[in-house]
Amino acid sequence: MTLGQGVGGLGAGAYIQGDAAIRINVGGFKKKLWSNTLSRFPETRLARLLTCQSKESILELCDDYDDAEKEFYFDRNPALFPYVLNFYNTGRLHVMAELCIFSFSQEIEYWGINEFFIDSCCSNAYHCRKMDPERREDWEDHSEEGSTTSSFDELLEFYNDASKFDKQPLGSARRHVWLMLDNPGYSVASRVISILSILVVLGSIATMCMNSMIEYSLVDAEGQLVEDPRFETVEHVGIGWFTFELAARFVVAPDLLRFFEHPLNVIDLVSILPFYLTLVINLVAESSPALANLGRVAQVLRLMRIFRILKLARHSTGLRSLGATLKNSYKEVGLLLLYLAVGVSFFSVMAYTVEKEDSEDLSTIPACWWWATVSMTTVGYGDVVPTSIAGKLTASACILAGILVVVLPITLIFNKFSLFYKRQKQLEIAMRSCDFDEGIKEVPSVNLRNYYAHKVKSLMVSLSNMSRSSPSEHSLNESIN
Fold first, then answer.
1. Triad 354, 355, 361: Cα angle to 5°
2. pTM of the model
3. Mean pLDDT, residues 298-315
């Protein structure tokens, strides 16, 4: 029976005989396709239309059928249908970089096209892009279970803090100063303060470095090295600015009790605390000769000024993203340290076994630990080297193993950094777009559809992972039988 000989003549066979063309309408995109072109791939949805013998069977494959126009209608994305047409013409699928992999995968599955038809030039990128989001959602969910929040949640927290000023004295003015100090780039004044703060930090670090150089050292009447008064002046100016900055942020903070819960505020406190502790220690040491050893503690505290470089994180998206990455990559970092510990233990024993009689530097296992650590991290100081052929072969294996051990977790950490950096940039743009000049009237613009889709996608990935980890229905039936 040919197509068109079905019940009541409702089939499309009379119009799709031989090399006839059929009319396809995909979401308003109309196209005529030749039956001999479709028949090259009989397992696809359009080719199965050629075998339909009734209108009911046609409607099982398409969303609607116009008997008068002999047109098959599909309620699908018309932007993706050209890729299906290209497949029928060439026999291969190609995936553009701008496409959503999940939408494309669902689309070709609907049309009955197997992923094996994806051309070799696109196959690797397609499968990598299809698998990576699942892994990213997995660790993203775990990070959210910890202390990481999404950009949407952080934006709401920022908005909630800003709304607290409406109930406080001089709320509008304090909110303006708070935004100017805590949100670099919010206004021209905030940019000026940010640049000034960066210059003070860099100047303080530069004077600390120059103060350690003999060329810039001064000698007092007793022949002892003393600090250059110019450097001391720069140090006092820097401490004055840092103290003023921290005090101003504390005064205008929306919640004083939670002020030091923010890591950047803790960094600000740590950057100035050594200076004031040094003053106290010096005063105590001068008043009591028995406590003269406290001067050494003061010298150690002076070296802690290097922590001021972390103040740049307030003005750098990259540094904040790096901190968030390290905070949420403890599993990967722990895995890296575990690999290194196993490798160091293994190769130190190997080096001790083959070198204990030929090298005094490798005569004990603890001494070999240093050599194995330097070799596995590919630093290679060269202070301890094997001399025998067996020792050199062991060193070669140690270096190669170190390269593999270091490289394996790096990709995961880098992917996290990329995600946190993108999230931080989006958060900053959203914060800068909030206008509080006339008070808070409505929540700032947030794409709730994307947020909802993100949560639903996370749920679907979690359910998919659960289904992959649970036994299949077939296995259950076999176990019951």
1. 155
2. 0.52
3. 73
